[in-house]
Design brief:
2 copies of one chain form a homodimer. The first copy, chain A, is mainly α. The first copy, chain A, folds into 2 domains: about 1-80, Arc Repressor Mutant, subunit A; about 90-170. Chain A is built from 7 helices and 4 strands; from the N terminus they run αβααββαβααα. Chain A has helices at about 1-10, 20-25, 35-50, 70-80, 90-95, 105-135, 140-170; strands spanning about 15, 55-60, 65-70, 90. The first copy, chain A, has a 3-stranded antiparallel sheet with strand order 1-3-2. In chain A, helix 1 crosses helix 4 (about 70-80), helix 2 packs across helix 3 (about 35-50) and helix 6 (about 105-135) runs antiparallel to helix 7. The first copy, chain A, binds a DNA duplex through helix 2 and helix 3.
DNA sequence: GAACGACATGTAGCTTTCGACATGTCATCG
DNA sequence: CGATGACATGTCGAAAGCTACATGTCGTTC
């Protein structure tokens, strides 16, 4: 239930509406933890019922802003301090790599080139954004600094994957004579 | 529905039982796309009903091995060639980073040190495994070579994250005077 | 004043995924 | 021959998450 704690964490920065939170998730946050608005609105209802958040104000266009309660703040801190980090991740890009041998060599080349471009562009965009933080354009609040740390991870991962895609194109592992041809031979196997 | 195609991809390497496939997912594959056995067994039933796989043999202990059909092979190839890659990923480690400002500085230090250790160890383990592939201990089949490419991505990501965790510990972003103290001030904000 | 687009919140139904429970098979070792 | 542990397959129900649908508000612009 990471979404629950993510919403609490965002509300710890200050009151926000479901719409605000959904926007946050559609931006940087959404690239490490996707969430759509129906999920957010219904989780907010549950959080309110649990007393972890409360309605702060109602604005125009039936806007409803929530504020985190003391219990909510305690809960998100407990999560950060006590709950073990789940190190597994879900990443279709890498998942597909296990099946590259089924692709036609030309398709694979094109695919890897596109991936390299994508990751390099994403890394550059994140790097540019990180630079604005370093220039102090967002202030120096602790939230901004935490976001800067998260951003750095995004930059490094995307750079790493751009490098990987380039390496894969250059390496002969995929250009060897029989690569990408049709029928299965025997498996590769994996260790524990 | 990536699991569906993942199972087809694994079965393209050769016949396997649900138990075999679950073991594959509990190893390297599971760190980029987690899947438990109930999901695998029920997906296999659906795949068989769709004619994409068929029962190859039944062995001892009511073992049931499946084989991919021509339709299944076509389908997994279609997926690889035609379906757009979903570049979003789900990664709790990074998600948490957005909320680091809520942690006590000492807890955060310890957390980052543990993360660095974890990623460095994982990277080293994967690197060692990749080396055995490079020494040809698993043969030179196309599957092995594709797995080598996937493995390289795992190595690079884990190295990148180990470097990130180290950087975060060394950077003053988190050691600045007010970092990690209790109450919200004002938000950092995010761009589109 | 009509149309449009951004703001804003929700419901319904479906698929995916997970944890817990349940069962049966076979080899090995004491 | 009984216990243990790895092998092997499943069911059930709940939670999580997604897509599509539905509705309403407000400011701007033609």
């Amino acid at each position: 239930m990471s979404l629950r704690h993510g919403l609490l964490g965002l509300l710890a920065e200050g009151p926000a509406s479901g719409y605000d939170l959904a926007r946050r998730f559609s931006q940087a946050l959404g690239s490490v933890w996707p969430a759509q608005h129906p999920q957010i609105y219904s989780e907010l209802v549950r959080l309110e019922a649990a007393g972890l958040i409360e309605v702060e104000s109602t604005g125009p266009r039936r806007r409803k802003a929530y504020r985190i309660t003391d219990a909510g703040l305690t809960e998100v801190r407990r999560w950060l301090a006590e709950v073990d980090v789940d190190h597994t991740f879900r990443m279709e890009v890498l998942f597909r790599a296990y099946f590259y041998w089924l692709m036609e060599p030309e398709d694979l080349k094109a695919h890897l080139a596109a991936e390299q471009r994508f990751f390099a562009e994403t890394a550059a965009a994140l790097r540019g954004y990180a630079d604005t933080k370093d220039r102090g354009e967002w202030g120096t609040s602790k939230q901004t600094r935490a976001m800067r740390i998260a951003l750095e991870a995004g930059v490094r991962i995307n750079e790493a994957l751009a490098g990987w895609a380039q390496w894969a194109q250059e390496t002969d592992v995929m250009t060897a004579e029989d690569f990408g041809t049709a029928k299965p031979d025997d498996g590769g196997g994996e260790p524990a």
